[in-house]
From TrEMBL, chains A, B:
Matches recorded under CDD domains: LuxR_C_like
MF annotations from Gene Ontology: DNA binding
Family annotation (Pfam families): GerE
Listed InterPro entries: Sig_transdc_resp-reg_C-effctor (IPR016032), Tscrpt_reg_LuxR_C (IPR000792), WH-like_DNA-bd_sf (IPR036388)
Name of the molecule in the record: Response regulator transcription factor
Residue span, HTH luxR-type domain: 54-119
Gene3D superfamilies with a match to the protein in the record: Winged helix-like DNA-binding domain superfamily/Winged helix DNA-binding domain (1.10.10.10)
Biological processes per GO annotation: regulation of DNA-templated transcription
Coiled-coil portions: none
Keywords from the named record: DNA-binding, Transcription, Transcription regulation
Length: 123, 123
DNA sequence: CTCTGTCCTGGCCACCCGGGCAGTTTCGCA
DNA sequence: TGCGAAACTGCCCGGGTGGCCAGGACAGAG
């Protein structure tokens, strides 16, 4: 019939449990017609698995931190965030610092990416 | 050795596109060690795919820009990106500038957020 | 009442970032 | 064959960022 030109289906993995991720990667890597996506590559579908136990659910962020985080995700600078929230730039930097710490991020860009990945914020 | 105590991995499908769902079901149904979950059955992982209509075409980014963008999304600094790609910091800044322009972003955080929103990259 | 946590503010400083300038090579396409 | 796009590199500079120090106000828990 037509096993002719169907392109490979790109699959990405989002698995919390490393062991499960390994097994799935091994299993899926050998399936003809499938290919695992490289980091950053856009996949046609994603395999997700959330370990119900290992769910910190939402990380413990204070309300103010969530405010700052939301504005950060909009690309706002500390100065803009300060004006928006009616607080000083120093305070914004303070909250940003806490955010970097809690989200285990190295910078604001990383923080937003991490937050989005963990569902703390919606892009 | 021990194929003994590895139970089958239960996979459920959440695919908007019926055609893609069909192909994936066919592909995954024949993989030893995997089993597709019956409706209502609790799966270890879920294969999800967004509606393909909801992708407003990729913005015209060059390959190098995509490289830089992917690393930016990982929270890498210009210096780290330069080392990673084997180019100079100045060149990285050049590409970042193009990215900010094309993505209509005010900074690297905004660029990553926009790119993720438009599906250019996967977080 | 003390202690803890959250929120807020200030200053200082090294570094990073973004944008401007100008220049090279390489490659594909008309 | 010439021309433009892409990729790459350099320097300069103002402003932003992140990390550190210090402090105070205020609410709730023990």
């Amino acid at each position: 019939m037509s096993e002719d030109k169907l392109p490979e289906i790109l699959l990405s993995l989002e698995i919390d449990d490393p062991a499960l991720a390994d097994r799935l990667a091994a299993l899926l890597g050998n399936v003809a017609g499938l290919r695992l996506a490289a980091p950053g590559e856009r996949a046609a579908a994603t395999v997700v698995a959330r370990d119900p136990r290992a769910r910190p659910e939402d990380i413990a962020l204070t309300q103010r931190e969530l405010d700052v985080l939301a504005l950060m995700a909009e690309g706002a600078s500390n100065k803009m965030i300060a004006r928006q929230l009616g607080i000083s730039v120093h305070t914004v930097k303070f909250h940003v610092g806490s955010l970097l710490d809690k989200l285990d991020a190295t910078g604001r860009t990383d923080a937003v990416a991490h937050a989005a990945r963990r569902g703390v914020i919606e892009l």
